[in-house]
Amino acid sequence: MVIHSPLVGRACKGIVKSAMRTSYSAINTYLQCPQRYKFQEVDRIRAPKGKEAIFGSLIHDTLHFMFERTPLFPTLDEVIAHFREHWPLREVFLQEEKNDPLKRAWTPEEEKAYFEDGVAMLKKFYEKNAPWNFAVVDLESRFEIVLADPKTGETHILAGIIDRIDKLSDETYEIIDYKTAKRMPSQDAINRDLQLSLYSLGLQNRWPHIKPEEIKLSLYFVKHGVKLSTQASAENTKKTQTHILKTIADIQDKIQGGKNFDPMPSILCNWCGYRPMCPAWKHLYKKQDPAIKNEADANGAINEYLGLKKNEDRLKKRMEELQAQIREYMEREGLTRVFGDEGYVSKRTQQRFEYDYQKIEALLSPLGKWQDILTADATKLRKILYEVPEDVRLVVEEARAVAKEYSVLTASLKKIKGPEDAATESPLPTEL
């Protein structure tokens, strides 16, 4: 079976099985927002890069330039000159504003501030990381990992690019990935970082003689001049493989079953190029269009519903009537969020599960946890799952089946500005 590029046919002893070719970036996109994954990987809709993404890419490109020339490494002035020569034209940012009316191009003052911030970051990095002091093995190192799923017999290919690989000694290596984000994660988050664990797998696949314990994994936060590191391990390697295979299985299930890739609205939406077409946002862009059938009626229902939300107990019956009207409109128009003058209404899919408690008892009894859920209470079981080993939790989750699926509407009284307000709106917060 072949379904777009993430799923590719793979022959195995005369049998063709469904397989997936994917990347860390795609897997991470799915975990952040399944709907964005569908736009990007399934529908193959190209979204223009935002200002922050362009800025980050240029920083990465400049650091690559800094280390690729050997033995005559570039001076700091040459590094800054490279950054300046490749600084994007203002038309790039004007195009982003054209694609999404809720975003606007940088003002000359903002563009100057970003450029100077980039120069400061590069100067700080150069001073602490003179290129001749490192034994760089490779830059932008491409890798592929073959992952065999023992449950399905499928073989998947996971591809990626490592920013930099250094050789620290005869037996140890360091994987370095550059980050231009303003926020730095905790050390615990670094220890559990999926990207670093995946890169460790990629290096081991490229050079099988390297053991996990011989790999140092680092994220270098260029803005702050700080490098956070952790150590690869066989245990983390196994957990990463399990996590990736489970995520791939979830994606395959949605694609092959024709299921929804539900959006997950978050602050990351501010930098998503798909927002004008996303079912969680597109109503905000089109609700002023008088040509859309029943649009005025729907907007009236949305605004009245959000107003009644303030008096929910007293007006519960009327709210249920409006919910039915809004739900019918959202399903007909393919929307998961609609926006009114007082806020917005969201529709999400919920599932209730039934568990095979006989199978779960055999798993939890040796751990002394079965007595806690003798009443076969799904709520108690979900709580206990946070306390058991990950491999046990995964098996427990496989012992469940969807008993009922339904949609619910939730309301927020937080007002969201529409495209007509973009001209007077302050710029969106940046996340480099």
Automatic annotation (TrEMBL):
Record InterPro entries: PDDEXK-like_dom_sf, PDDEXK_AddAB-type, Restrct_endonuc-II-like
SUPFAM superfamilies listed in its UniProt record: Restriction endonuclease-like (SSF52980)
PD-(D/E)XK endonuclease-like domain mapped to chain residues: 22-279
Coiled-coil segments on the chain, per record: 305-332
Record keyword Coiled coil present: yes
Keyword Coiled coil found: yes
Domain of life: Bacteria
Keywords assigned by UniProt, alphabetized: Coiled coil
Protein name stated in the entry: PD-(D/E)XK endonuclease-like domain-containing protein
Species annotation: Candidatus Sungbacteria bacterium RIFCSPLOWO2_01_FULL_54_21
